[in-house]
Amino acid sequence: MGYSERYGNLGLKGTNASALEKDIGPEQFPINEHYFGLVNFGNTCYCNSVLQALYFCRPFRENVLSYKAQQKKKENLLTCLADLFHSIATQKKKVGVIPPKKFISRLRKENDLFDNYMQQDAHEFLNYLLNTIADILQEEKKQEKQNGKLKNGNMNEAEENNKQELTWVHEIFQGTLTNETRCLNCETVSSKDEDFLDLSVDVEQNTSITHCLRDFSNTETLCSEQKYYCETCCSKQEAQKRMRVKKLPMILALHLKRFKYMEQLHRYTKLSYRVVFPLELRLFNTSGDAVNLDRMYDLVAVVVHCGSGPNRGHYITIVKSHGFWLLFDDDIVEKIDAQAIEEFYGLTSDISKNSESGYILFYQSRE
Amino acid sequence: MNEIKTQFTTREGLYKLLSHSEYSRPNRVPFNSQGSNPVRVSFVNVNDQSGNGDRLCFNVGRELYFYIYKGVRKGNENLNSSLSTTKRGSCVVEKSRPVVTEMVFRSSGELKSKGADLQKCSRWASYTGLQAADLSKPIDKRIYKGTQPTCHDFNHLTATAESVSLLVGFSAGQVQLIDPIKKETSKLFNEERLIDKSRVTCVKWVPGSESLFLVAHSSGNMYLYNVEHTCGTTAPHYQLLKQGESFAVHTCKSKSTRNPLLKWTVGEGALNEFAFSPDGKFLACVSQDGFLRVFNFDSVELHGTMKSYFGGLLCVCWSPDGKYIVTGGEDDLVTVWSFVDCRVIARGHGHKSWVSVVAFDPYTTSVEESDPMEFSGSDEDFQDLHFGRDRANSTQSRLSKRNSTDSRPVSVTYRFGSVGQDTQLCLWDLTEDILFPHQPLSRARTHTNVMNATSPPAGSGGANPGSNGNSITTPGNSVPPPLPRSNSLPHSAVSNAGSKSSVMDGAIASGVSKFATLSLHDRKERHHEKDHKRNHSMGHISSKSSDKLNLVTKTKTDPAKTLGTPLCPRMEDVPLLEPLICKKIAHERLTVLIFLEDCIVTACQEGFICTWARPGKVVSFNP
């Protein structure tokens, strides 16, 4: 599987592309925008779906394209991604299909995990991609600094190494969680900040993403074996812990933990629960000292998992572009009604595991 | 924790699910609801002599059912009253002719309708006390092809034992007028889909009218129809009547009068629900763009707006006295908005998902004595003074009955409920401290003086000094009053107002009958003048001055900039309510919540309509 199961065959490719153009209408078709499907190289829909979602996260796309515009570099995963995005953005046609061949082979070369024809987890791939890009950018910054240092020769080296350079990946996706622990004995509150590029939240049947996020920040009591070592009491104590968002990212990526390891079955099963997600979102689980705690987010992309398990099934992506919604299913792109999004909330029946349900949500800050 | 509740307790007592009054499709099998339209329920009282004239209508998938509603009654009572022929244990033959209606779209979009008898005759089984409702014998059943029923509304003015007028809206935009007692399809509107092709989201008779109705669509448009007029054979041409911020109203340009009479365009995205104020003068609309917009329906003027915390607003309702509006939406919150002040006075968090229905409980909205200490110093506050006057009026009969020698103020508590996609029912109390805060919250303080001249739509203020219990006996009352929502039976309030106090706590009962009385009286008076107005030209609309609008705070409705303004206060700037109860009561998401006198009715997307007997209303096994 992994190949388009929704439409059966690829024979429709040509007609589909022109149908999309007709569907949007020549007057309505946004200037300088391109809607290109990505060829599946054998179970690479996990990759295609994430790439499409990221392409329609505008700040991310713009940074990747301007990276491409920089001077020629040695090939890495980011240069391959930049080439792919550049290739989409500079197509003569407005719609069509592109093979992301160079990117896929680079990915397989760089990481053993992806060096096979197995279906992979889209969230794992997103995580890998963002971290890899951040590493590449950080490395480049370091190189630049070192080059500069060689010329000037009077920088404080210790200070430099302690400070991790923030890249545009961090500027776009990084938020901060604050982990507050209150010792139930001495009432001392200690807090520790933690950065994240995306949030993984547990899902429950018939809930909203808002509720899942509230749940994520619910107070948890650490007791019995999980007791907390309190610095003030100098001993293990019962404590209350909660995690709240302290700095909100520009793009909030939310991963719904739909794959759960079943002890009895010795394998992962899919939670097809119906979890609704609104087109507009604010967070309730922010800490009091957050600066931008009530910023409004708009849904811009959703990676959808279709099927029954993490290593089987299919990934597709829906994105919002210039006010309308598009569905990217590997090489197929079609315009969908905003109301059709409700098909991707999940199932209310617990019997069926097989669903087309939202897996990674991308919310972009309005300000 | 995830167990489904069959009863719950509030301070007024135990509410109990009545298994003998469960309605569903005849096979009682859960309906596979993925991707279908919400199940909705409408009630009507056909006002027959027997005392049980309650009928219900509900849609499940492509089917529409019409049954006698037993409510909290025992089976035999139901039988006696509805057929008025027999005693318990005997056998009655009743003709039941479910109709299959085909609404099939041809390529041209043409809609064809035909009826066919499914069953010729059927036999009522011998009845015992608490037997479940006989679902195999709907009075009427319709199955649609090509389009699905999405919503419906009975005309409470015209309902009789022989005939009812039921409007049904459909997923492809059409509206049908049917009579499920006569089993007739009287009329089809927007049959050719020339007026609007999008899903009908809400259909309601205009309060006080036998012929006018309003239809909202997911296109964001709303149309006023008259059942007497045709829809024409061509697409309507519109002429702008009135335009305001984020809304426009057009009239239909045509030589002969045709439908639609008016086209309202409201906000952006789908118009999810609308509700008329108890006096029928104002219209509250909630939209996918997250806005509540309240209009003066006759003058087509915007009275006020509110923005959700985030996401679309899905449902809306009015308090029985018209002073408050509650909305529910995709922020998982219920929001209470003051009609007079045009501001958010509270939000409520209890649902784990989107809120699909909100409704006030007019029978538990009460007037109670309060601790006099609570009111010390309130004279200094302009807001309290103002409300104090309103309050005294709205509780007039209560005061005169129980408190005539005592000048102590009384406290008001509003009860409302909400159901959501989380399969939970929440009940909420709006109490004195929320309604009339002694210390307005920091940011709210500056708005307490922008009280404008607009009176609450139910007219419960000083404008109705004549409102008292006597109005129940005025001759005009043979006609039942229209209801703002199909969520309560008007007759139960009217016919039982004198005898109900035996069951309920005295204080609550008098407060309750007060509400029923007041709004009824008010409606009656208005009814006559409106008939005159509404059946004539719309000329009065444009000539009317918009002075009133200037009194209302005019705020830019850029959604990104609304936070922290009166349109959408920050979370910390308004009180956050906690639900009185919050119970999981179904497997599937809930789509219906209706407060009746004896019970609460809920329904879920699986197509089960449940009756929850109010405290003291549970029927015993042996009469």
Automatic annotation (TrEMBL), chain A:
Q: Name one GO biological process term.
A: proteolysis
Keyword annotations from UniProtKB, A to Z: Behavior, Hydrolase, Metal-binding, Protease, Thiol protease, Ubl conjugation pathway, Zinc
Instruction: Tell me which Gene3D superfamilies the record gives.
Output: Cysteine proteinases (3.90.70.10)
Quickly give the catalysed reaction.
Thiol-dependent hydrolysis of ester, thioester, amide, peptide and isopeptide bonds formed by the C-terminal Gly of ubiquitin (a 76-residue protein attached to proteins as an intracellular targeting signal)
Q: Which InterPro entries match?
A: Papain-like_cys_pep_sf (IPR038765), Peptidase_C19 (IPR050164), Peptidase_C19_UCH (IPR001394), USP (IPR028889), USP_CS (IPR018200)
GO cellular component entries: cytosol; nucleus
Q: What is its EC number?
A: 3.4.19.12
Q: Does the keyword Hydrolase apply?
A: yes
A GO molecular function term, named singly, is: metal ion binding
Q: Name one Pfam family in it.
A: UCH
All copies of domain USP, residue ranges: 36-366
Q: Which family does it belong to?
A: Belongs to the peptidase C19 family. USP12/USP46 subfamily.
User: What name is this protein filed under?
Assistant: Ubiquitin carboxyl-terminal hydrolase 46
The source organism is: Callipepla squamata
From TrEMBL, chain B:
Q: Which InterPro entries does the entry link to?
A: WD40/YVTN_repeat-like_dom_sf, WD40_repeat_dom_sf, WD40_rpt, WD_repeat_creC_regulators
Q: Mark the WD repeats by their residue spans.
A: 306-338
Q: Which SUPFAM superfamilies match?
A: WD40 repeat-like
- Show the ranges annotated as biased composition (Polar residues): 485-501
Specify where the region named Disordered lies, as residue ranges.
Answer: 450-501
Q: What is this protein called?
A: Uncharacterized protein
Q: Does the keyword Repeat apply?
A: yes
Which of UniProt's keywords are assigned here?
Repeat, WD repeat
What organism is this sequence from? Callipepla squamata
Report which superkingdom the organism of origin falls in. Eukaryota
